[in-house]
Amino acid sequence: MIRLTIAALLVAGSVSVAHAGEQSRVATLYKNPQCSCCEGYAEYLRENGYTVIVKPTHNLSLIKREHDVPAKFDGCHTTLIDQYVVEGHVPVATLNRLLSEKPNIRGISLPGMPAGSPGMSGVKRKPFVIYEISEGSEKVYGRE
Question: What sign does the dihedral 41-32-26-80 (CA atoms) show?
Fold first, then answer.
């Protein structure tokens, strides 16, 4: 009976299993209730060893303000993980780097909804530019 319950949870996506050698991380993703690409991003994170709690909200701008996300870095959704805010469809390699290096910044952002980014349809046409969310001038955190 217990095996059946565990299997049902895994199939339903309620439990995420980390890949070998990866630490499971809990991410809270705030999104507009009607947005399907955000669900695609949540699934992408789950497939890469993250436990994702999705919280639909009609007040996403308040979440962004509470975490000091500049308007120029607005993404489709806002994800909170460890002490960081992650805006938009940031690829998991950059997210893992952030969580591994633990820089003294508020977070990172892939602004907008770039085609071909994780959870988005379309074809990637150029490298994604991921920005630091921090004090001071605009800085690039990475390119993918």
Answer: positive
CA 53, 26, 79, 115 dihedral sign is negative
DSSP state of 21: T
Structural domain total, the chain: 1
Residue 21 has a pLDDT of 41
CATH code where residue 28 lies: 3.40.30
Residue 24 tokens read as 């499971």
- pTM score of the predicted model: 0.81
CB-based contact 89:110 (threshold 8 Å): yes
Domain coverage including residue 49: 20-143
Asked if the structure places residue 10 within a domain, the reply is no
pLDDT digits (tens, 9 = 90+) for 89-111: 999 999 999 999 999 999 999 99
